[in-house]
Amino acid sequence: MGKSQIQRLKLAIQTKRTTTPRHKALILNALHKSPLNRNARRRSRTKPTRIASGKAEEKEAVERKIRALQTIVPGGESLGVDKLFEQTAEYIMNLQHQVKAMRALSSFFESLEKEKSKCGGG
């Protein structure tokens, strides 16, 4: 997956455009362009007799990744693919907010410790 695709995916997630078909296409494209799938496509191009086999391998790889995503996202097992991608984007945003909050708390407690040590309360 190229840097520009990752940036577009992050931008889509950050701007909360999670319900647009373009966002779904970006996520599908990101899943589709894993190194495993690229190699399968390359093989299918070089060996015309394996075209159907390469497509089946790609489909299996995408399905395997979707199943893995369903286990990661809370409640994902009961969701269809479209809703799963929406929930995934929301879950990522929530995790990013949690990390931001934890960093703020950590910074706050570090400053308290510094003040405490300055006052001789160490």
Automatic annotation (TrEMBL):
- Provide ranges: composition bias, Basic residues: 39-48
- Region spans: Disordered: 36-58
Keyword annotations from UniProtKB, A to Z? Nucleus, Transcription, Transcription regulation
Instruction: Indicate where this protein resides in the cell.
Output: Nucleus
What CDD domains does the record tag this protein with?
A: bHLH_AtIBH1_like
Query: Taking the first listed entry, what is the main subcellular location of this protein, grouped into a coarse class?
Result: nucleus
Query: According to the lineage, what is the superkingdom?
Result: Eukaryota
Q: Which GO terms describe its biological process?
A: regulation of DNA-templated transcription
Q: Which InterPro entries match?
A: bHLH_AtIBH1-like, IBH1-like
Q: Name one GO cellular component term.
A: nucleus
Question: What name is this protein filed under?
Answer: Transcription factor PAR2-like
Gene that encodes the chain? LOC111486345
